[in-house]
Amino acid sequence: MIKKLGALLLMSVALITGCQNSTMEPEEINPEIDVCEVCNMGLAHEHYATEIVTADGDVYKFDDIGCMDEFVEMAPELKEENAAKQYVRDVDTGEWVELEKAFHAYHPDFWTPMANGIVSFKDKESAEKYVKEQGIGEVLDYESLKKHEWSWEQ
Predict the structure, then answer these.
(1) Residue among 46, 93, 49 nearest 67 (CA)
(2) pLDDT digits over 98-135, tens only?
(3) Which residues, other chains included, contact 47 with Cβ-Cβ below 8 Å and sequence gap of 6+?
(4) Number of neighbouring beta carbons within 10 Å of residue 43
(5) Buried b (16+ CB within 10 A) or exposed e, 104-142
């Protein structure tokens, strides 16, 4: 009986450990239950959602890139090298893209869930096309985005 309990306990630990997100890959959004870590708004607009995945396997979900940036400012340990990966979604395809590799179209009049005006794309050409179609805005790469002044900072 004790051997069976021990084996069951060992299997349970292995199962729980195996479920952790050790690859630091983003999870799919479930708009029925997922809410933003910062503002508690539902993630109804999935293509604007962002995520932080930590090396420990924790996943934090956000409705807008601005909420994600605010969360990182409140948790500076996430900025440490290899502590976490940040992801945005290409607004056209819904494809997850690492924040450092993405390009963004910005204008305060661009619609986003939290009115931050930043729309993310997997490549520069898509961001440029969006700006051209809208007739306003600018394209930001990762370095430009790091210098961006967010509405919550003002």
Answers:
(1) 49
(2) 999 999 999 999 999 999 999 999 999 999 999 999 99
(3) 89, 90, 91, 92, 94
(4) 22
(5) bbbeeebebbbebbbbbbbeeebbbebbeeeeebebbee
Which amino acid belongs to residue 137?
G
Long-range interactions of 143-149: CB distance < 8 A, separation 24+: 145/99, 145/104, 145/118, 148/106, 148/118
As given in the structure block, the two tokens for residue 55 are: 């090396």
- Judge contact between 87 and 98, C-beta under 8 A: yes
- Judged by DSSP in three states, 103 sits in strand
> What are the tens digits of pLDDT across the range 18-27?
444 568 999 9
pTM (2 d.p.)? 0.83
Place of tokens 């948790």: 75
Round to whole Å and give the CA distance between 26 and 96.
7
* Residues with Cβ within 8 Å of residue 120, at least 6 apart in sequence: 48, 50, 65, 88, 89, 90, 91, 97, 102, 103, 104
